[in-house]
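Quick log. Single chain, no ligands specified.
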Amino acid sequence: MKKPVKYKKILFNLPDLWYILFLMAEKVKNIVEDIVREYLNVSLSLRYDICTCPLCRNAMLAEALSNIPPKYVSTEEAGMRAVIEQTRLEYQARIAKEVLNTIDRISKNPPHELNEDKKQAFRLLLNKIYEDRGLDFRHYREGILKRRFALRMHANKVKSYAEYLLLLNKTPEEYEKLFEALCINVSEFFRDPPVWEVIEKILKELIKERVETNQSLKIWSAGCANGEEPYSIAILIKKILKDYPPDKFKGVEILATDIDKQVLRNGEKAEYSLASLKNVSPRVLKEYFTYEDGRYCIIPEIRKMVLFKHMDLILQEPQIKDLDIILCRNVFIYFNRSLQDILFTKFYKFLKSGGYLVLGKVETIWDEVKDIFEKVDLENRIFRKK
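-> predicted structure:
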């Protein structure tokens, strides 16, 4: 008969048990929580249109984590970083989507009463800008505007639209920095080369026609930024005119307008860094630019072809009619539907019959607008007035 097995009895007092449980808990960790927390903090860092207090942050974190499966790993140093980075790659799309959705849900139904109407404060801020400086951003797309405002608010370490409004009262010079942020002026010569290949073909046809009829060419660069676009047009025209006797072409008017006065001054100065010339061939660079003190300068012959004017596209009209081409690239994205309709109507009015409208690569025309504009090259967003 086998003797019964004797088990050694192990007893723990309560403090020892808690310590062991603590050590066991420390050996594994849900690394998804850290990644979600990181995404949440980044996403909220420039959000001034919603409440981002600790209570709301915790509610957002808890809800996001409840919808994402955990991933536990050992807290030992060896290999942990590699696991975290691999998890980040695997989960990043889902985490980013879930965090944004959670922010949207919690911000609409916060776990406490709000003591500030952020929407009203934002409207008051836009009203103040219009009253003080005459620039009307009240119908621009709010999402884009809020991101631009957030950059300046973060730079000034203010925590609300109301505080920023007070800052504008006390420090009027902040307006210029704000307008620089609101009017993003990123451009380069011959930006999106396929578009310019089509524009060159159109210019060749137009110039041939104008030579035969002894008429001038009229072009408007609406939202010209630092002048790269209108100067690109001028260079193309100058190249094409080499095929014609000097006295056969009546002339060209190139109007370049922008709401930002500083970029207009930059355009008139006509000095550029090498970064904005990446699409310019060495031959064109040599023929139409000079190099001075580390900058590339447009030659005077091209500079005098472009007239720069300050203009608000919505509130003002150009002093030029019967235009052959209007370029308004990557400007419509800032406007809501009603302002876009106003612009399409304005462009239709100032274009001559058969005149061309060039939009940005991510922009297109509404179905209702197709009654007055027909597509020439949909991929490159080039249309023509019917």
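The longest strand covers residues 351-359.
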